[in-house]
Every structure is written in C-alpha cells, then in structure tokens.
Request: fold
Amino acid sequence: MDIKKVIASISGIELFFMIAGIIVPIIFIGYIFFFKIKSKGVVDDCRLIKHDSWAGDLISTKMESWQKTNLSHGNNLFFDVFFYTGDGSELKSAKALVALSDMHLLKKGLDIIVKQGEKGRVAVLKINF
Reply:
C-alpha cells in the first residue's frame, strides 16, 4: 500500500490523534530534558558552596539579617546571611544551609561561625540557635 493512500484513507479525528501521539511525547521529553539541565545547574551551584575543600580563617560574629534563596539541598534551604566582619566596618554575605525545622529560629543577633577564604570566598559554618 502506498503511504499517500493510507493517509488519504484516515479520517480527520484519526489523523489528529496520530499526530498528537507523536508530538506530545516529543514535547514532554524536551520539557524533562530542559528541567534536568536546570536542576543539574543547581547541584553544580551547591558544589561551589562546599567549604571543606578550601582553606580559610574562622571568624565568630553575629548575624545582622538573612534572605531566603531559591536554592535547596534535600529538605534544607540555602539562605544569604548578612554579617559584619571582625572590625565591624564591612557588611558581608555568605550562604548558609538551614533545615526547614530551624527556619523559624533565625533572628538578628545570633552567633555564627564564618569561614573566610581567599578570592572572596565566604561560607557560614554554624549558626548557634
């Protein structure tokens, strides 16, 4: 049988569902692929925040403010924590991983331990709730 005769013998509704059956899976595969790449970018960002792999000085200071970010790691959320350095002149920010159960405990004046490395790397190691 010729392909032209097969297509000509198919009714309009059959042709619609045949085309939809081809297009819809392609769209879903593209959708999943797009978000898988986006998700991989978030994981790479989390790896950049890893503080164990670089050297730096530990500083004890107090939290001035915080802001929730769109990054998460499991059920924990990343926050931008703002604090003053040792001499109190420069306001800096660093990422902190906070459990969902501890999120309501964040407040101004909490003691935090911060690791400052070279090239401006800063990470919050511990928040004393």
About this structure: Residues 3-48 form one domain. The first helix runs from residue 3 to 9. The mean pLDDT is 81.
